[in-house]
Amino acid sequence: MGRQDHLGDLEELALLAVLRLGEDAYGASVRRELRKRAGRSVTVSTVYVTLMRLEEKGLVSSGLSAPTAVRGGKAKRYFRVTDAGLASLQEERAVMERMWDGLDEALLSADGHGR
Question: Can you tell me the distance from the alpha carbon of 46 to that of 70, in angstroms, rounded to the nearest whole number?
Answer without folding.
Answer: 24
